[in-house]
Amino acid sequence: MTSWTLRRKLRQFLIVALTCLIAVWILKYRVHSRLAKMLDFFAIFSKGGIVLWCFQGAGVSESFTGPVNALIRSVILQERSGNNSFTHNALNLKYKLDNEFELVFVVGFQKILTLTYVDKFIDDVQLHFRDRYKNELERKGALKFLLNNFEFGDDFHQLLKEAEGSSKAKGPSYMRTFNESLKSQKTVKSMIETRDGDKSKEQGGKKSKNTKKEAESVVDQSKAAPQTASKKTMENGSEALTPEEIIERNRAKFISKQLGGVKPEKSSKSPKPQKPKGKVKRVWDMGGRNTGDLDYSGANGNNSGDTQTQDKDEPLMQVDSMKGDLRGVDYESSEEEEQEEEEEEERVVVANTNKKGAKKGGFGGMFGMLKGLVGSKNLSQEDMEPVLEKMRDHLIAKNVATEIASQLCDSVAKKLEGKVMGTFTTVASTVKQALQDSLVQILQPKRRVDILRDVLEARSQRKPFVITFCGVNGVGKSTNLAKISYWLIENGFSVLIAACDTFRAGAVEQLRTHQRRLNSLHPPEKHGGRAAVQLYEKGYGKDAAGIAMEAIAYSRNQGLDVVLIDTAGRMQDNAPLMTALAKLIAVNTPDLVLFVGEALVGNEAVDQLVKFNQALADHSKTEKPRLIDGIVLTKFDTIDDKVGAAISMTYITGQPIVFVGTGQTYSDLRSLNARAVVSALMKA
């Protein structure tokens, strides 16, 4: 063979090998691109915000930073990670938290796609990434994420291919035929329910003649048996008695009848109920009046005198000053109570560990107890389940809505699963601390609502600052509106109250009474001869949106600082009134929409807020409807430590609690102190 022939065959072999290699690469690229078209992106980043590795699907031009940032702001930072899915515009995001190494795995795909393998796929990626880069992730310091190069592309595509292959291998499930079902094997007779006697008859009908003969012989033997066994009988459910005892009892009955039929008293007779005591008159502190001042009988019903002279004659209410920012809600918990709570939790943990260890033997129980108390172990769902169950019941007892309590506990479980416990820390203390941090994070607002600053800014622009109050019936909208008016007057602002409750009888008169009392506390002489509070009203039966618009225009012309719009109370299911409220908000575009809710409600708070927001969105004609901006929590002084409504309302809306009503005077208005509320909530 010549050298030329050898060179030609070698060239042909190289061409064939190169062609096969290119074909393999093209096939691999097509498979990867076909799989990747399903996913828009996949990102692995630390909780500190450092991206370790990311993938973006073919044909996806938009950056994934927007959806990921929305996930961090709305879910991870707000302690709402109980559900592992999040929707942002047209994308559906699935995420998983790795608490041991402080990592977040996020995958995004189009919302219209139904990808059944995503949950298993993200679990596989997490385990594979942890196993491959375990040494790098165990290093201390934030530089470990910056100095290392995480090449994860090939492994990612391989796992994606396997995940989609496993979902295809399962195939669709088909409905069974009738012959394959268990119902087809049942007979009509087997489905008839009968009593025991009927069953015995049916069974007896199937017996053979021999069994019948045996039964007859048994009956004959029973008849021939001595009747000594039948001496004891059962009468009226009493014990078995001999004939002599029956005769004695009948004789006693006969004697009692002859003596007049006196029946023996029953020992189980309930005692007679005691008569209720008379009603004690309640004396209210800081009432401001004597009972004699309220007696108008001497006026013979003629109370049409001048209201200004009445205000001068009546003593003024003792109201504290409210200049500056509002004070926070206070709640004091003694150190002894906190210590007792911790000891109780430790007893629960030790009892649970002893129960688990008792199944494994004596040494297993001892070592299990020490393992539950000593740190340096990874928390699992089984370890936290007893504590979380107790926490869930505790939150529900403190008036947190049932659904919200379950979501909070699930979020804490996701946050702690796989995390390494500290030294000499119990599972109960770890879970309780995580739950407290989550509750404080929920109650702290995403944005600060500073009304005094906003009013000053609106005054500089020569326009009034408009606040609209809405809520269900009887929660205290008008009363708390008057409290907020007093707070604003104390800080040097002029207020106009718009009486837009044209539905409830007496609503305008109630606001007029508040206006008169507030002006008596702050007379016009202190405000340059102008009334500190003015009332704009057009009577009853008018359009509320039109009255609000006229009130805003009037305040702008008169140079007033704040307009407070009082609306009619309405249930969340009343469609006509909800439409009118949405119209009022859409037409007048207030600066702040406050929902007024009671602190007494539990599960109802969730329904009210969800339906109010939904109604405002449905009945609004704009693309971006105006929803609730903040919450006014009323009657906070009536609930002691059952403050769960604050958690439910904030969790549902994501909006802050701006004001808290704590009493019946104008100065009983506070701001929310998140740590004080959480302290009251966690009190045993």
List keywords for this structure.
single chain, 684 residues, alpha/beta, five-stranded antiparallel β-sheet, 13 strands, 47% helix, extended
Please characterize this protein's 3D structure.
With 684 residues, the chain is an alpha/beta fold. The chain contains 23 helices and 13 strands. It has an 8-stranded mixed sheet, sandwiched between helices. The protein has a 5-stranded antiparallel sheet with strand order 2-1-5-4-3, sandwiched between helices.
Describe the secondary structure blueprint for this structure.
Elements lengths: L2 H34 L2 E8 L4 E6 L8 H12 L8 E4 L2 E8 L4 E8 L7 H15 L1 H4 L5 H5 L5 H18 L25 H10 L3 H16 L18 H16 L48 H7 L21 H24 L3 H12 L7 H17 L4 H15 L10 H17 L7 H10 L4 E7 L5 H14 L4 E5 L7 H15 L11 E4 L7 H15 L3 E5 L8 H14 L3 E7 L4 H16 L11 E5 L9 H10 L3 E5 L7 E2 L3 H8 L3
Parallel strand pairs: 6-9, 6-10, 7-8, 7-9, 10-11, 11-12
Antiparallel strand pairs: 1-2, 1-5, 3-4, 4-5, 12-13
Helix pairs in contact: 1-6, 3-6, 11-12, 13-14, 13-15, 14-15, 15-23, 17-18, 19-20, 20-21, 21-22
Brief rundown of the structure:
With 684 residues, the chain is of the alpha/beta class.
> What kind of sheet is the major sheet?
8 strands, mixed
- The dominant shape is extended
N-to-C span = 97 Å
Uncertain runs: 29-36, 197-219, 221-239, 264-269, 299-315, 353-374
Structure classification: alpha/beta
Order of strands across the biggest sheet? 8-7-9-6-10-11-12-13
